[in-house]
């Protein structure tokens, strides 16, 4: 039986970027806690697989897939409406989609890549919040995925860092503007070796052997999508009813 402090039975959650990696981990952890999940991503193949995994498991929630481009405001509006049409309401919105595969000094960065990174990682959060709030009731929750890059400089990723830092300030501002009806928090994941991270860093599975020692992680290991999913569950569950406007690092290190 699910502990009441972490029970999401009957709740409805939208998760963007849910087709793989961290978003997939979030979707499966929230479904295990009883939530019905709308998995969103541009890749229908990926989110259909995640939804199918949830539906054939013994989790308490049901899942559907809805293809969405988070950089398109109309797509985000349609995503929120799909959740309400399918499940009758909307309680939780997780702005998780994002990323950048381009590394370059800011003075050499292509302007198009700067604009694309901002709309994918920052403007998309604005679109998502605006769409979700049209359907939210009392006690609704928003979780935004930021990054350690929002607080720590990573040369070559200044465009990404700037976008993710913006997510932190959006989170704090929204917590004031939307409270007490809606709680808003952000997660700053550390090093989680997903396929996207491996591609961005041109690293293989073998490259990650002992990498926690290279990073000097006190926790003694790299992160997993389930780790991030667990923090997402906490921020969406009754256990965190007095938590809002927080930007929480989860990285295996201070």
Sheet-strand content, in percent, reads 5-15%
Can you tell me the number of structural domains? 1
What does the largest sheet look like?
7 strands, parallel
* Structural class determined from secondary elements: alpha/beta
| Number of helices, counting only DSSP H or I runs of 4 residues or more | 8
CATH level-two architecture: 3-Layer(aba) Sandwich
- Overall spatial form: globular
CATH classification, class level: Alpha Beta
What can you tell me about this protein's structure?
With 254 residues, the protein is an alpha/beta fold. It has a single domain (4-250), classed as Rossmann fold, CATH 3.40.50. The protein is 43% helix and 15% strand. The chain contains eight helices and seven strands; from the N terminus they run E-H-E-H-E-H-E-H-E-H-E-H-H-H-E. A seven-stranded parallel beta sheet has the order 3-2-1-4-5-6-7, sandwiched between helices. Helix 5 (158-178) links the parallel strand 5 and strand 6. Helix 1 packs parallel to helix 2 (44-56), helix 3 (73-87) runs parallel beside helix 4 (111-133) and helix 4 (111-133) packs parallel to helix 5. The longest helix is centred in the middle third of the chain and has 23 residues, at 111-133. The radius of gyration is 17 Å and the shape is globular. The relative contact order is 0.16. The model has no long low-confidence stretch (mean pLDDT 94).
């Amino acid at each position: 039986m699910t502990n009441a402090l972490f029970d999401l039975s009957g709740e409805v959650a939208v998760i963007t970027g849910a087709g793989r990696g961290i978003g997939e981990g979030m979707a499966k952890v929230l479904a295990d806690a009883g939530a019905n999940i709308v998995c969103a991503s541009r890749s229908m193949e990926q989110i259909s697989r995640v939804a199918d995994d949830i539906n054939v498991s013994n989790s308490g929630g049901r899942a559907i897939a809805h293809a969405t481009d988070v950089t398109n405001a109309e797509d985000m509006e349609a995503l929120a409406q799909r959740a309400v049409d399918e499940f009758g309401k909307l309680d939780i919105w997780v702005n998780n989609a994002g990323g950048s595969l381009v590394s370059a000094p800011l003075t050499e960065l292509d302007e198009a890549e700067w604009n694309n990174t901002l709309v994918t990682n920052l403007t998309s959060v604005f679109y998502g919040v605006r769409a979700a709030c049209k359907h939210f009731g009392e006690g609704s929750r928003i979780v935004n995925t930021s990054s350690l890059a929002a607080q720590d400089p990573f040369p070559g990723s200044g465009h990404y860092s700037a976008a993710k830092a913006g997510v932190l300030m959006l989170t704090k501002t929204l917590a004031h503007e939307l409270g007490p009806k809606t709680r808003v928090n952000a997660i700053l994941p550390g090093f989680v070796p997903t396929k996207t991270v491996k591609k961005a860093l041109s690293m293989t599975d073998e490259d990650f052997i002992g990498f926690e020692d290279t990073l000097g992680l006190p926790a003694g290991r790299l992160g997993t999508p389930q780790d991030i999913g667990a923090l997402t569950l906490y921020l969406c569950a009754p256990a965190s009813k007095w938590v809002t406007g927080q930007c929480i690092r989860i990285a295996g290190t201070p």
